[in-house]
Amino acid sequence: MPLLDHCRQPLSEEYPWESIHSGWVSEIARHLNRRLPPRYYALENKKFGNEIEIDVGTYDREPLASPGANGPATATLAAPAWAPPAPLKTIAAELPDTFEVRVFLREGRPKLVAAVELVSPRNKDRPFARQGFVAKCAGYLAEGVSLVVLDPTTERTARLHSELMELFGAADQKDQSLTMFGAAYRPVVREDRAQIDIWAVPVAVGQPLPTLPLRLTGDLMVPVDFEATYTDVCRDRRAM
Fold first, then answer.
1. What gap in Å lies between CA 26 and CA 1, rounded to an integer?
2. For the purposes of burial, counting CB atoms within 10 Å of the CB of 63, is it exposed (0-12), middle (13-18) or buried (19 or more)?
3. Which pTM does this prediction carry?
4. 107 φ, ψ to 5°?
5. How do beta strands 181-190 and 146-151 pair?
6. What is the C-alpha radius of gyration for the chain, rounded to an integer number of angstroms?
7. What is the pLDDT of residues 142-194, one digit of tens each?
């Protein structure tokens, strides 16, 4: 089905973009897992900006019991608590949204090989948000992780694809015209030179959504069908 405008009234009241994006990344992961080879799997990752994602955690556990000198076990005393100096500054944590699907290869420890990103209005509303999103995409590509990005948001006129191309020193006039877009980026090495193959197309309300290639490893590719996954999300939510 054609793309609807979930960022503006009247649809934003009944079927807001938050609900559509949340369900959409789950649907993309489900579709990919039906097509991926056996050693690959896709997982969705959803986080609104006010939620903090912790990569390294510490845990509070009871002291370990150790045998006492005369028999009964006694608790091992913990080291004295260390008190840091007062913070020099405290700021509000204005964090970006994350709506993505990550594809992993089971090769001993799981290896991230590809990612699919859905752009939200909050990824575009302020300079720091746009810079953060573009830096995240560039970080994936610099690590050799293939990337597909879809920007279906009608709010804001940021040109995220163009900003990403500028970061790599390769923006042109056609990139400037893509305010809403779908793009696939495949990092490759040819003749000892790092390159990025790009498929970029415009996206518009009322028009069908694209199918874009997602590289896993080497020349192994799978399609990301945004039209089919969006249709399933809207059907499940009775938006069609």
1. 18
2. exposed
3. 0.80
4. -145, 75
5. antiparallel
6. 22
7. 999 999 999 999 877 789 999 999 998 887 878 888 889 999 999 998 888 88
Q: Are strands 111-118 and 146-151 parallel, antiparallel or unpaired?
A: parallel
Q: Give the residue from 44, 62, 54, 199 showing the smallest Cα distance to 118.
A: 44
Q: Are 188 and 196 in contact (CB under 8 A)?
A: yes
Cα-based distances in Å from 75 to 63, 67, 79, 239: 6, 9, 12, 60
Rounded to 5 degrees, what are φ and ψ at 92?
-75, 135
Tokens of residue 237, six digits: 């939510």
Domain boundaries, the chain: 11-48+94-236
Strands 211-215 and 73-75: unpaired
